[in-house]
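Please review this one:
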Amino acid sequence: MTLLKEVLSFNKEFVDSKMYEEYTTGKFPDKRAVILTCMDTRLVELVTKAMNFRNGDVKIVRNAGAVINHPFGSIMRSLLVAVYQLQADEIFIVGHHDCGMSTLSSEAILGAMEKRGIEKDTADTLRNAGIDIDSWLQGFESVEQSVEHSVHMVKTHPLMSKSIPVHGLVINPNTGKLDLVIDGYKKETTA
């Protein structure tokens, strides 16, 4: 049985037996918050459980590394929608230790792409078109610095209300322990 058939078979049973009823909630987050976190499989349920959130409490946005790369990309748009349309009043950026993005190199991912059939010349074509594919595919060295970067991107965004606290945390993917990087309630001081 293919994975798709397995999913659809289970889904029929899920709907027919009304298993969905325990997850029924509204579209607005009860705790009025949104979390940006990594798509790592270890975090699927761990992040919300470790933060004492249940289904319906928060909006969750996920990507590779919990990184905001572009101020007008889909991640930032999702955070803006959560605040202005879905009643989120706080933002949590949650990175994690042992993140795959901390070891990601553009050379490694481009090599993996080539093994999956992407022509080697494609990267050069993109570079020649002015796309910095190497930086775009590069990971980060420090999860704490990456979280700080993403918090900064949100806090300084021209369309984000300055009244929204933006917190930065790093979670241990094995234990769920949270380390505070930035307390969004505190005012930033400049040196």
The two ends are 61 Å apart (CA to CA). The chain has a mean pLDDT of 95.
